[in-house]
Design goal:
By secondary structure, the protein is α+β, with helices and mostly antiparallel strands. α3 packs antiparallel against α4 and α4 (about 85-100) packs antiparallel against α5 (about 120-135). It is built from five helices and four strands. Helices cover about 50% and strands about 15% of the residues. The chain has one domain (about 20-145). It has a four-stranded mixed beta sheet.
């Protein structure tokens, strides 16, 4: 019985630690929102990031995630009041679906979203704030995003 209790307790702690991770649009996006805009270590990886975000299955996953959070918020109460984790996830999904070559990290607190990372073009940079503000509950968006042209092969 003691082994089972220890196992269950450690499982809960592990899930809690994983759940506190920041919302990122790709695996190579910055992991710490407080580090400021990071640099692209291998610009050729942008193609891989783009392919991950543009797959049909991934797009359906992103849409389903946003739809599920919207439905939960409709049922749970005020649709304009969102949990910080919901805002982070919805903004991340929106950015990943619409700017697939981005390497962005999202952090949200009380309706204020902070987005850091890199995008490969000014056109994609200009899409970030309007896309983030499409999410209900986002009041303000601050960015530390750099435009770093990618070399796609």
């Amino acid at each position: 019985m003691k082994k089972l209790t220890g196992f269950l307790l450690s499982s809960v702690l592990l899930l809690g630690a994983v759940g506190c991770d920041v919302a990122r649009t790709s695996g190579d996006a910055p992991t710490n929102p407080n580090d400021g805009a990071a640099k692209v270590e291998d610009a050729a990886k942008v193609t891989e990031t783009k392919d991950d975000g543009q797959g049909e299955i991934r797009r359906k996953q992103l849409e389903a995630d946003i739809r599920a959070r919207e439905e939960r918020n409709k049922i749970a109460g005020d649709p304009e009041v969102r949990a910080d984790s919901d805002l982070e996830s919805e903004i991340r999904s929106k950015l990943e679906a619409n700017i697939p070559r981005s390497q962005l990290t999202v952090e949200a607190t009380d309706g204020q979203a902070k987005i850091i990372g890199t995008v490969p073009s000014q056109e994609e940079y200009d899409k970030i704030v309007p896309l983030a503000k499409e999410i209900k509950g986002v009041k303000e968006v601050t960015m530390e995003v750099k435009v770093i042209p990618a070399t796609e092969s």
